Amino acid sequence: MTQRSDCPISTLLDFVGDKWSLLIVRDLMFFGKSSFSELQNSDERMATNILSSRLEKLEQDDLIQKQTDPNDRRKKIYKLTEQGKSLLPILLEMIIWSSKHAQETNLPTQLLERASTDRDGLIADLLARLED
């Protein structure tokens, strides 16, 4: 990956600086999606060419890995790498920020409550769920 500068925020944006990449990470992380068709059927209805290019970039940047589905050898499944999973606290903070500044969104109330009372436990539980 080519970095635009040595700024840490700019570097993160070089990895996931477009909305589609973050939404793919969101779907893999929070909604248990793993196949191309599941990712394509998200509420945002990403075009197939955009989804393909973002999956390829996320894989090249070592945020996701592509595997053959053990149940259907013709199908590919996508999983977050350890580097991808390490984005969890950032996405959690984005959810919390949205809860304060955009109340009309579909915010997971239980997740928000737990984030304020047991943030570390919530992160541990979410990461454990990704291991299954």
TrEMBL record:
<keyword id="KW-0804">Transcription</keyword>
<dbReference type="GO" id="GO:0003677">
    <property type="term" value="F:DNA binding"/>
</dbReference>
<protein>
    <submittedName>
        <fullName>Transcriptional regulator</fullName>
    </submittedName>
</protein>
<keyword id="KW-0805">Transcription regulation</keyword>
<keyword id="KW-0238">DNA-binding</keyword>
<dbReference type="InterPro" id="IPR002577">
    <property type="entry name" value="HTH_HxlR"/>
</dbReference>
<dbReference type="InterPro" id="IPR036388">
    <property type="entry name" value="WH-like_DNA-bd_sf"/>
</dbReference>
<dbReference type="Pfam" id="PF01638">
    <property type="entry name" value="HxlR"/>
</dbReference>
<dbReference type="InterPro" id="IPR036390">
    <property type="entry name" value="WH_DNA-bd_sf"/>
</dbReference>
<feature type="domain" description="HTH hxlR-type">
    <location>
        <begin position="7"/>
        <end position="106"/>
    </location>
</feature>
